C-alpha cells in the first residue's frame, strides 16, 4: 500500500471509529444568504410612468444574479426584506383596478414562488392597501412571511408569525450532509401604525424593533435554531439608540443571538459609501460590530450576499467567519447605463399577462395639458409638477368642508417633488409632454397610494412646517467665493413640502432651524421670510386648513405640529385619485406655477450650484436665474442658480 492510500484508509478508519462510538467529527459549512429588498413591484425592467424599458430595475434581472450566486455555493437561502407589493402602477392596478380574488396569485409572489424564496418579512408599504388585501396577497406565497413587532390590538398577540425555523440539508466541506436549523425573524418600522393609521387603527399596534428582538431571539434559540437571521425592513443609523427608531437595523447587530441582518427601507447600499463613517462598520468585510449586514439597494438594483462560515463543535453550530457584499444589475460606462445581466426569461414569461394588462391601464387618457410638466427644477423654484397636485388637493377638500365648522377657514395645500433625481438617478424626474394626459402621468406626478388628509393648524405652526421643509438646503455663505452646493443630499425630496395658498421666501444663508429628525438645532434661526396670506403678513394665531396626505398628517417625516391629533378630514380617496378626478373634470389643464415661494437673494460671491437631469438644459426657466454648467457625476448635469440679487 502506498502512502496516499494508507492515509485515505486511515482517515476512513477514523471516521468509522467515530461513527461506531457515537462521536461525530466536527464540521465546517459554507452557507450563502441571498437577499433582495424594496422591490416595490419592479418585477420587469420597465418604467410604467415613462412607458419604456428601464435596465436599472427589475427582479427579472436580479433573478439572473440569483441563479449565478446559487451556482457558486453548495448551500444557499434566498430571502426578501419586503416593500414588495406596492410602488408602481402594476401594484396599483392589481390592488385598485383589477383586484385580487381569493386564491389568485399576486404577481410579486408569482415571481418569488418561481424563484423559490425561502422566507420574507413585511415592510411599511405592505400595509398601504389595507390588511385584507395584504392577507389575500400573502396567502399566495409558498414561503413563510414573518414579522415579530406587529401585534393585534384585540389581544396583544403577534399579528404575523414572529419567526420561522427553516430546516435545510447542508453539505459540509468534507461532503457530509447535515440538518441545519435556521431561525428567520422579521421586523418593520414601528411608525407604520402612524403612516397607515386609517387602515390599521384599532387593528394592529407595533413595538420597538430591538425590544421585539430581545423577546423572540432567545425563544428561537431555545427552540433549537442553530443560527438566526434578521430580516429587518429598517435602515441603518449611527445615532445613539433611544428606542422606537424607524431605522434600527444596526442596533440589531448588538442583540445577542443574531448572526446576520438583511436591511433595507432606506433605498441605499451596504456595504458601500452610502454609510461611510457608520459606527462599528467594517466596509471591507461588510459587518457592523462584527455581524454581517447587507442592504441591497432598491427596485431590484442589487442582490445582497452574506457568506457565512459555520463551524460545528460538539453538536453546536457557530459563525466562525462572515462577509457581506452586493452585486448590481447595471453600471455606468462612459456616462451610459449598461446592463450587466439579462432578464430571466421564465420570470418575463410568467408576468407577461400582468404586464400587458398594466400597460392598458396606465395608457388610459384622462385629459390634456396645454404645456409640458416636469420636475427638473422642483427643488429650487416653484414648480408646475407640484402646483397641479396642490391645486387638486385644495379643490377636493373645499367640497368636503362645506357646511362644517371649518368652512370659511383659508385652505392651504402641501405637496412635494417625489421624483427629483437623487438616488433614483438622472432619469428620475417627472417629464410629461404637452398634450394628452393618461393615468400613468397622474401616477408619475403622485407616486404613492397615500390617502388624502386635512389638518387644522395655526399660522405659527404653518411657519414651523415650512422651516422643517427648508432643511432641504445646505447653508450658503455669501461671503465665501467659489462653488457651494445648494441641496442637502441627506434630505429626502418627498419631505420638501411646498405649501400653496401662502407666499414666502427661503433664506439659505441662515442655518437650518431643524435637523432631519425634527429637532430644533438652531433656535434663533428662521429661514422662512415674509410669510403672507393674500399679501398681508400671516397672523400666527389664525387657523388654517392644510391639505396633505396620511403619511405627513400622521407624523411621517417628524414635522413639528403633525402627529395625527389635528386631522379634521380623513378622505376615503387617495391623493392621486383626487388628482385624476381634478384633471378629468377640467379636461384641459394649464400647469403653470403661481410662484408663491422662492429662494431669496442673499448677495455675495458664492456660486450656488445644484444637479438635475441633463435634459433640464432644454427646459431652463425664463428670467435667466438658472443656467447650465455642464456635466456632473453619475450622469447628472450641473446648474447654477443666481442668488446674488
TrEMBL record:
Q: Does the keyword Heme apply?
A: no
Look up the signal peptide feature and give its range: 1-19
Catalysis performed (reactions): a nucleoside 2',3'-cyclic phosphate + H2O = a nucleoside 3'-phosphate + H(+); a ribonucleoside 3'-phosphate + H2O = a ribonucleoside + phosphate
Superkingdom as given in the UniProt entry: Bacteria
Q: Name one GO cellular component term.
A: outer membrane-bounded periplasmic space
One Gene Ontology molecular-function label:
2',3'-cyclic-nucleotide 2'-phosphodiesterase activity
Instruction: Quote the subcellular location field of this record.
Output: Cell envelope
Give the protein family: Belongs to the 5'-nucleotidase family.
Matches recorded under PANTHER family: 2',3'-CYCLIC-NUCLEOTIDE 2'-PHOSPHODIESTERASE_3'-NUCLEOTIDASE, 5'-NUCLEOTIDASE-RELATED
How is this protein named in the record?
2', 3'-cyclic nucleotide 2'-phosphodiesterase
Amino acid at each position: 500500500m502506498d502512502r496516499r492510500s494508507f492515509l485515505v484508509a486511515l482517515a476512513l478508519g477514523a471516521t468509522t471509529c467515530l461513527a461506531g462510538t457515537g462521536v461525530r467529527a466536527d464540521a465546517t459549512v459554507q452557507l450563502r444568504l441571498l437577499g433582495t429588498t424594496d422591490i416595490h413591484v419592479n418585477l420587469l425592467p420597465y418604467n410604467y410612468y415613462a412607458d419604456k424599458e428601464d435596465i436599472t430595475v427589475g427582479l427579472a434581472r436580479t433573478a439572473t444574479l440569483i441563479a449565478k450566486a446559487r451556482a457558486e455555493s453548495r448551500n444557499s437561502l434566498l430571502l426578501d426584506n419586503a416593500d414588495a407589493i406596492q410602488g408602481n402602477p402594476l401594484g396599483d392596478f392589481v390592488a385598485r383596478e383589477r383586484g385580487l380574488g381569493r386564491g389568485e396569485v399576486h404577481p410579486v409572489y408569482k415571481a418569488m414562488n418561481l424563484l423559490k424564496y425561502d422566507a420574507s418579512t413585511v415592510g411599511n408599504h405592505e400595509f398601504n392597501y389595507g390588511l385584507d388585501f395584504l392577507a389575500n396577497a400573502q396567502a399566495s406565497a409558498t414561503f413563510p412571511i414573518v414579522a415579530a413587532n406587529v401585534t393585534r390590538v384585540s389581544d396583544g398577540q403577534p399579528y404575523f408569525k414572529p419567526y420561522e425555523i427553516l430546516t435545510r440539508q447542508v453539505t459540509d466541506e468534507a461532503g457530509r450532509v447535515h440538518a441545519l436549523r435556521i431561525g428567520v425573524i422579521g421586523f418593520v418600522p414601528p411608525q407604520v401604525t402612524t403612516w397607515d393609521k386609517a387602515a390599521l387603527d384599532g387593528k394592529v399596534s407595533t413595538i420597538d424593533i430591538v425590544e421585539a428582538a430581545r423577546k423572540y431571539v432567545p425563544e428561537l434559540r431555545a427552540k433549537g435554531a442553530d443560527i438566526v437571521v434578521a430580516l429587518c425592513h429598517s435602515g441603518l443609523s449611527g445615532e445613539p439608540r433611544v428606542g422606537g427608531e424607524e431605522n434600527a437595523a444596526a442596533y440589531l447587530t448588538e442583540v445577542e443571538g443574531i448572526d446576520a441582518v438583511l436591511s433595507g427601507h432606506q433605498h441605499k447600499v451596504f456595504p458601500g459609501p452610502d454609510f461611510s463613517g457608520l459606527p462599528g462598520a467594517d466596509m471591507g468585510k461588510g459587518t457592523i460590530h462584527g455581524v454581517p449586514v447587507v442592504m441591497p439597494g432598491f427596485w431590484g438594483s442589487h442582490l445582497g450576499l452574506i457568506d457565512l462560515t459555520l463551524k460545528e463543535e460538539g453538536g453546536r453550530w457557530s459563525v466562525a467567519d462572515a462577509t457581506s457584499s452586493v452585486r448590481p444589475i447595471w453600471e455606468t460606462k462612459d456616462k451610459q447605463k449598461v446592463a450587466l445581466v439579462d432578464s430571466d426569461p421564465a420570470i418575463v414569461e410568467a408576468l407577461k399577462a400582468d404586464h400587458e394588462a398594466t400597460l392598458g391601464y396606465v395608457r388610459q387618457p384622462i385629459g390634456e395639458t396645454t404645456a409640458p410638466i416636469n420636475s427638473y427644477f422642483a427643488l429650487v423654484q416653484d414648480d408646475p409638477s407640484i402646483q397641479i397636485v396642490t391645486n387638486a388637493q385644495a379643490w377636493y377638500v373645499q367640497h368636503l368642508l362645506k357646511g362644517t365648522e371649518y368652512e370659511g377657514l383659508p385652505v392651504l395645500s402641501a405637496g412635494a417633488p417625489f421624483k427629483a433625481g437623487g438616488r433614483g438617478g438622472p432619469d428620475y424626474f417627472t417629464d410629461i409632454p404637452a398634450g394628452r394626459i393618461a393615468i400613468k402621468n397622474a401616477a408619475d406626478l403622485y407616486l404613492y397610494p397615500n390617502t388624502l388628509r386635512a389638518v387644522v393648524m395655526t399660522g405659527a405652526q404653518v411657519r414651523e412646517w415650512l422651516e422643517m421643509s427648508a432643511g432641504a438646503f445646505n447653508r450658503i455663505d455669501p461671503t465665501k467665493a467659489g462653488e457651494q452646493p445648494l441641496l442637502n443630499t441627506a434630505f429626502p425630496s418627498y419631505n420638501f413640502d411646498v405649501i400653496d395658498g401662502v407666499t414666502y421666501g427661503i433664506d439659505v444663508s441662515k442655518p437650518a432651524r431643524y435637523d432631519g429628525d425634527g429637532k430644533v438645532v438652531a433656535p434663533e434661526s428662521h429661514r422662512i421670510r415674509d410669510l403672507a396670506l393674500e399679501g398681508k403678513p400671516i397672523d400666527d394665531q389664525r387657523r388654517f386648513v392644510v391639505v396633505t396626505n396620511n403619511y405627513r398628517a400622521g407624523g411621517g417625516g417628524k414635522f413639528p405640529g403633525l402627529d395625527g391629533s389635528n386631522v379634521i378630514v380623513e378622505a376615503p380617496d387617495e391623493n392621486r385619485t383626487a388628482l385624476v378626478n381634478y384633471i378629468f373634470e377640467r379636461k384641459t389643464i394649464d400647469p403653470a406655477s403661481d410662484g408663491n415661494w422662492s429662494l431669496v437673494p442673499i448677495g455675495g460671491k458664492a456660486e450656488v450650484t445644484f444637479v438635475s437631469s441633463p435634459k433640464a438644459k432644454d427646459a431652463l426657466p425664463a428670467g435667466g436665474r438658472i443656467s447650465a454648467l455642464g456635466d456632473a457625476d453619475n450622469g447628472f448635469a450641473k446648474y447654477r442658480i443666481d442668488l446674488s440679487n
